[in-house]
Amino acid sequence: MKLKPLPSKKVILILEKLGFKKIRQRGSHLFFRHADGRTTIVPIHKGEDIGRGLLQEIIKDTKLTKEKFLKYLSRLRR
Predict the structure, then answer these.
(1) Cα 66 to Cα 1, 17, 52, 56, distances in angstroms
(2) How confident is the model over 35-64, as pLDDT tens digits?
(3) Which residues lie below 8 Å from residue 12, measured CB to CB, with a gap of 6+?
(4) CB of 56 within 8 A of CB of 40?
(5) Residues with Cβ < 8 Å from 63, sequence gap 6 or more?
(6) Which of 9, 6, 21 is nearest to 62 (CA)?
(7) Which domains does the chain have, with CATH numbers?
(8) Distance, CA of 14 to CA of 75 (rounded, Å)
(9) Cα 28 to the chain's mean position, in Å?
């Protein structure tokens, strides 16, 4: 399954399910941190989805595989 652009709300839900906590927000960017030290940033722009390239960067930051990320995404859609 290919990555497709996603709304930031879904990406945030996945990160929270993975144990990431919102640390702070600066402008339209939310900073997340996991208890083990991993961090990532999610942009929030109303009416715009997060593109495939940025999703790949977020997945890389969280040290997940694309397949595992998509598995969490499919659980959200149920």
Answers:
(1) 9, 16, 11, 8
(2) 999 999 999 999 999 999 999 999 999 999
(3) 30, 42
(4) no
(5) 38
(6) 21
(7) 6-76 (3.30.920.30)
(8) 9
(9) 14
pLDDT at 78: 66
Q: How far apart are CA 64 and CA 17, in angstroms?
A: 13
pLDDT of residue 77: 72
The DSSP line for 3-60 is: ---EEHHHHHHHHHHTT-EEEEEETTEEEEE-TTS-EEEEE--TT-EEPHHHHHHHHH
pLDDT of residue 1: 74
Q: How many residues can be counted in the chain?
A: 78
Q: Which of 40, 48, 45 is nearest to 14 (CA)?
A: 40
User: pTM for the whole thing?
Assistant: 0.90
In whole angstroms, what is the distance from residue 9 CA to residue 37 CA? 22
Which tokens sit at 42?
């999610």
Token couple for 56: 């790949």
